[in-house]
Please model this.
Amino acid sequence: VQLVESGGGLVQPGGSLRLSCTASGFTSIIYRMSWYRQAPGKERERVARITSGDGTTNYADSVKGRFTISRDNAKNTVYLQMNSLKPEDTAVYYCQALASGYVYWGQGTQVTVAS
Model:
């Protein structure tokens, strides 16, 4: 399974961005996909996740009500819609897939929230 993220960039506080993560390879075995982020000097933290089967979602408290994870199974793509962005959302955002007991990561995309 290969993961490619896109959609990062520079945005002002209060703005929005949508990240995309497209999977290729043995995508049919993916059980769950998640978005993580890592800010400088901090540990990587899970932001949101979505289960492939029933589409159950889960969010970190810090992003509830502002971020939405969704998927397009036909395109093998997971999205992270980020609204009301804050400077503390600045980080490298990574896509993760769980498949048959293995963990796969994308290369990451930088999100910078600054005025």
User: Anything to note?
Assistant: The mean pLDDT is 95. The first strand starts at residue 2 and ends at 6.
